[in-house]
Write a structure and sequence with these properties.
Number of domains: 1
CATH topology: Arc Repressor Mutant, subunit A
Order of helices and strands: HEHHEEEH
Structural class: alpha+beta
Number of helices: 4
CATH class: Mainly Alpha
Shape: globular
Oligomer: single chain
Helix content: 40-55%
């Protein structure tokens, strides 16, 4: 299992349930660039799932997202992401 950073831990703690990008930004207080980079990394590590936004709710699950527009998606921690939170 990959070691996650402190900021990735912070994001994962807010993704026990499916949440929109704006929720992550507001609740974590992290910089936009940090959130974007961490979401990309967490996605590559299969620690989060990504969902299309459909009228303000999570739609179908997708594998990749538009890195330039993370605000168009919803995110949720996977089993590996939840395990990474508890192993720290």
């Amino acid at each position: 299992m990959s070691k996650v950073t402190e900021t990735q831990q912070t994001i994962l703690r807010h993704l026990i349930y499916t949440e929109h990008y704006n929720y992550i930004r507001e609740e974590t207080g992290l910089a936009v660039g940090v959130i974007r980079d961490d979401l990309i990394t967490l996605s590559h590590l299969n620690m989060i799932e990504i969902f299309e936004d459909q009228d303000g709710t999570a739609g179908r699950k997708i594998r990749h997202f538009d890195n330039d527009h993370p605000e168009l998606f919803h995110y949720r921690a996977t089993k590996w992401g939840l395990d990474a939170m508890s192993s720290r």
